[in-house]
Amino acid sequence: MKIESIATKTFTDQKPGTSGLRKKVTAFRQPHYLENFVQAVFDVRPDLQGGTLVLGGDGRFYNREAIGIILRMAQANGVGHVIVGQGGILSTPAASCLIRKYRTQGGLILSASHNPGGPDADFGIKFNMPNGGPAPESVTEAIYQRTLELEHYRICPPSGINIDHLGEHTLEGMKLTVVDPVADYAELMQSLFDFKAMRTLLASGLFSMRFDAMHAVTGPYALRILEDLLGAPEGTVMRAEPLADFGGVHPDPNLVYAADLVAVLNRPNGPDFGAASDGDGDRNMILGSRFFVTPSDSLAIMAANAHLLPGYRQGIAGVARSMPTSCAADRVAEALGIACHETPTGWKFFGNLLDAGAITLCGEESFGTGSDHVREKDGLWAVLFWLNLLAVRRQSVAEIVKEHWQRFGRNYYTRHDYEDVDSDAAGDLMQTLRARLPELIGQSFGPFTVTAADDFAYTDPVDASVSTGQGLRILFEEGARLIFRLSGTGTSGATLRLYVERYESDPGCLLEDPQSALRPLLELAESLAQIQHYTQRSQPDVIT
Ligand code: G16
C-alpha cells in the first residue's frame, strides 16, 4: 500500500467550539486544512488503528470531497474498517446510532449543523466517541493541541471506490462498508415508539401533519419513517430533497428560518401538527395549529409524559437541561421525585450523565432534545415522541401544553440573538457585565431582586471535570433569570445570546405573549448590559 507523508503547516485556529470545528468552506478548502485536523484526530485516538470508524455528514457543499479525503487518510492511518453512509450521508443522530450499535471506536461527523451551506457558507467536522457522543473537552483540547504541532499527515492515493454503492468494499488494508443511512436509525425508532398507534392516528382522517426537512439531511429519514412506515400521505414531508446549499435556506428550525412551515400551520384548517429539523437532523421545532412549543417547554412536557410511550414506560431516571434552558423541566423533575441536572451549553455535557444512567431525557433551548437511545440530540426522535404522544392523548398540541402550564405553572421564556457582532465589542460587553456581577447581588430593580449573579461553572458529577466561563447569570427572586452568553458555533464575528425567563403560577396569567410578559426583564437586560451600545443594533436578528 502506498502511503504518502505530506508536509503540512500549523494552523492556529483549529480549536473546536461548542460542537466541533466549524468554519467557512473557504477555510476548510485551504491546502492541508481539513487534513491537519483529521490527522490530529487519528493521532490522539490510537484505538482507531485496526478499529472501526463511522463516517458521514449532512450532505452540504464539500461533504463528498471531505469524505473522499478522510477515507484515504483512514486507510493511511491503519483504520481497520470504515462504515460510511451511502453517498456520504448520515444525520448526526443516525451516526451516533451506528457508532453505538456496531460498537465502533468512534465517528467523524461532517456538518455545520443549522448554519447555511454552499461554497461561501459553512462546513464543520467533529469526532464522536465510542459511546456515540461528541468528544468531551479533554479530547477536543488534545486534538487542538495536536493540530498545533503536526508537521506531516498520512494519506493514500485515491482508490476509485464509489460510496454510492451499498455493501462491502475492500481497499488495500481497510474494509469499507457503505450502509443505507436510514435503516438502522428507523429500526431504533421502531423500538422506542408505538408505530401502530401513530399509523392509526394518521389514517383516522381526523389528523394531519407537516414536516419541513429544509432541504437538509432529514429528508430521506422523514420520507422513510413518516410516509413509508407510518403511512402519512405523500407531501407530508416538505422540502424533502437534501441539497448541497439547502436550496438557499438557512436550515435552522426556528420561527424565523422555518417561516414557510409556520405559515402552513397558521392557515385556517391547517395541519394539526408541524415539525422541522435542521441541517444535520439533530434539532427540532414543534408546532401545533397556530401554536409554537418552546424547546424548553417541550423537554418538560416530554419528561411529564414519557411513561405513556413504549420506550419510556418504566419511567425516567432523571433529566438534564443546559443552563440557559428554562427551568420548566426542573418543576416536572421535582414532581416526579427525580434529579434535574443543569449543564453548560453543548450536548457533550450530557454524555457522562447518560452513560452513568443518571438521566434518561435531556434538552436545550437551542431546539435540541434527546434521550439515552443515542448520544446526540435527535430531531426526528423528538417529532416521533410528540406524534406518539398526540396519538395516545388524542388532544391538540396546544391543549397538551396549556394543561401542562395549568399543572406546573409557566416559565415564560425568550432568546434574543445578535448575530455577527464585532468580536471585540461583544467581548467588552461580557467583560464589563462580568465585572459588575458582584455588586448586583441583593439589588432590586422594580419588582426584581437579584439573588445571585455569576459566571456559570460546572463540575461534572461523574468525572469531576470542571468547565468555567459558561455564561453570565443574573438570578432573581421567584425564578426570573437573565443570561448572557457568546455562541460557540458561529463562523463569523460573535453572536451574543440573551436568554430571559420568568416563572408564572397564576392560572389566570398563563396565556400572555412571551415578548410582552418579559418586556420589563428585557428592558432591565438592556439597561444592565448596554446591548445596543456594544452591538450597534437597535434590535436582535433572531427572536425565539
Ligand atoms: C450545538 C450544540 C448544542 C448547543 C448549540 C448552540 O448545536 O450541540 O449543544 O446548544 O450548538 O450553541 P451556541 O449557543 O454555542 O451557538 P448544533 O445543532 O449546532 O450542533
Q: Major β-sheet, in short?
A: 7 strands, mixed
Order of adjacent strands in the largest pleated sheet = 2-6-5-3-4-9-8
Number of discrete domains? 3
What is the name of the CATH topology of the largest domain?
Answer: Alpha-D-Glucose-1,6-Bisphosphate, Chain A, domain 3
Outline: globular
Distance between the termini: 53 Å
CATH superfamily of the largest domain: Alpha-D-Glucose-1,6-Bisphosphate, subunit A, domain 3
C-alpha Rg (nearest Å): 23 Å
User: Which molecules are bound in this entry?
Assistant: 1,6-di-O-phosphono-alpha-D-glucopyranose
EC number: 5.4.2.2
GO cellular component, one term: cytosol
InterPro entries: A-D-PHexomutase_a/b/a-I, A-D-PHexomutase_a/b/a-I/II/III, A-D-PHexomutase_a/b/a-II, A-D-PHexomutase_a/b/a-III, A-D-PHexomutase_C_sf, A-D-PHexomutase_CS, Alpha-D-phosphohexomutase_SF, PGM
Family: Belongs to the phosphohexose mutase family.
Describe this structure as you would to a colleague.
- Residues 14-152, 184-287, 296-408 form the Alpha-D-phosphohexomutase alpha/beta/alpha domain.
- It catalyses: alpha-D-glucose 1-phosphate = alpha-D-glucose 6-phosphate.
- One of its GO terms (molecular function) is phosphoglucomutase activity.
- The protein is built from 18 helices and 27 strands.
- By secondary structure, it is an alpha/beta fold.
- The chain has 3 domains: 4-180, 3-Layer(aba) Sandwich (Alpha-D-Glucose-1,6-Bisphosphate, Chain A, domain 3); 185-408, Alpha-D-Glucose-1,6-Bisphosphate, subunit A, domain 3 (Alpha-D-Glucose-1,6-Bisphosphate, Chain A, domain 3), CATH 3.40.120; 410-543, TATA-Binding Protein (2-Layer Sandwich), CATH 3.30.310.
- The protein starts with a strand and ends with a strand.
- The protein binds 1,6-di-O-phosphono-alpha-D-glucopyranose (G16).
- 1,6-di-O-phosphono-alpha-D-glucopyranose (G16) is lined by residues 18-19, 113-114, 278, 282-283, 322, 345-347, 364, 366, 368, 487-489, 497.
- Residues 18-19, 113-114, 278, 282-283, 322, 345-347, 364, 366, 368, 487-489, 497 line the site of 1,6-di-O-phosphono-alpha-D-glucopyranose.
